[in-house]
Amino acid sequence: MKTLRMGAGEVPALGQGTWNMGERAAHRRDEVRALQLGLDLGLTLIDTAEMYGEGGAEEVVGAAIAGRRDDAYIVSKVYPHNASYDGVREACERSLRRLNIDSIDLYLLHWQGHHPLAETFDGFEALKQAGKIKAWGVSNFDLENMEEALTYGAPATNQVLYNLMKRGIEFDLLPWARQRGMPVMAYSPLETQGREQAALLGHPGLKAVAAAHGVTPAQIALAWVLHQDGVIAIPKAVDPVHLRANRAAADIALSADDLAALDQAFPPPRRRRALDMR
Ligand SMILES: NC(=O)c1ccc[n+]([C@@H]2O[C@H](COP(=O)([O-])OP(=O)(O)OC[C@H]3O[C@@H](n4cnc5c(N)ncnc54)[C@H](OP(=O)(O)O)[C@@H]3O)[C@@H](O)[C@H]2O)c1
After folding, report:
1. Cα of 85 to ligand 1 centre, how many Å?
2. Quick one: which of 43, 151, 220, 276 has the fewest CB in 10 Å?
3. Mean pLDDT estimate for the chain
4. For residue 11, what is the domain's CATH number?
5. How far apart are CA 161 and CA 179, in angstroms?
6. How far apart are CA 106 and CA 137, in angstroms?
7. What is the pLDDT of residues 3-55, one digit of tens each?
8. Considering the domain boundaries, does residue 142 fall inside one?
9. Which domain range does residue 163 map to?
């Protein structure tokens, strides 16, 4: 599988998301097993946040990596309202306890809030010095936010919404990050759940490419994200069938004709757009 350098480690371009995990005790066993299967399949980057299940997702991740910490690259995120100098350090300690690890591989500001970035980044640097995190970055930052961020420090990544239906970052943010050798983490690569996902996965243009390859539309949607230079995709999957399909999607080679057909079905941006977020 394609790998990229991010923060202090080399990571697979395909990882695992955890949003909606850790919310119900009845689902916990399946969620832990799913993350473990993902690790076995080589999806060793696990993305979580203190927000997901209000700490519940981090506990699920902690259970999944128990006894195999070194197999995983853990990304977690701090709430913007906790992103003061002292706040990030306290939030990080809580996350470490839930994850039951000594150090988070990459710690992100979930989105920009009211605390000054300089203060948040100083807090991140202090955590790095103390060995509590190995690297830090940001999420949901538009180009202006990134330019501002660079005046205060050097984020290892920007995690943003990116999929065939949400291609706005291709106009400016993605080329900007590529020029700087900064990997971009694509969240909701399958358009999360519900109506929007149905609109993507049921799209005739996507279905046609999938049929030609004998794979599912979700696999082509994921293969397309993975095809993009400098991009890491973090789909969330609890269903083992989905996990295996996602792993297989990393091996799908899209031809120039496939890419042209997908561009026609999901046109790339022609002008600047506000950053898509959820
Ligand atoms: N930084 C941020 O602000 C932010 C925002 C949103 C998300 N994220 C991160 O990005 C991760 C991924 O985003 P997401 O969870 O919103 O959406 P997603 O990964 O695009 O979609 C998840 C949904 O797709 C289903 N699925 C997974 N693989 C599939 C396959 N091969 N075929 C059909 N369906 C499949 C999952 O079902 P099952 O679970 O039933 O398998 C789940 O319902 C999150 O979990 C989170 O870690 C970050």
Report:
1. 31
2. 151
3. 97
4. 3.20.20.100
5. 20
6. 7
7. 999 999 999 999 999 999 999 999 999 999 999 999 999 999 999 999 999 99
8. yes
9. 3-191+229-237
Residue 214 in domain = no
Ligand 1: nearest atom to the Cα of 139: 1
Q: pLDDT tens across 168-187, in order?
A: 999 999 999 999 999 999 99
State if residue 112 touches ligand 1 by the CB under 6 angstroms criterion: no
* Buried/exposed code over 158-179 (b: 16+ C-beta within 10 A; e: otherwise): bbbbbbbbbbbbebbbbebbee
Domain assignment present for 131: yes
**DSSP-assigned beta bridge partners for residue 73:** 45
Name residue, tokens 């706005």: 168
Examine residue 273 and state whether it is found in any structural domain, yes or no. no
Q: For the chain, what percent of residues have pLDDT higher than 70?
A: 100
Report the number of distinct structural domains present in the chain: 1
Binding site membership of 234 for ligand 1 (Cβ less than 6 Å): yes
Strand order across the 184-187 sheet: 45-47, 73-78, 106-109, 136-139, 158-161, 184-187, 231-233
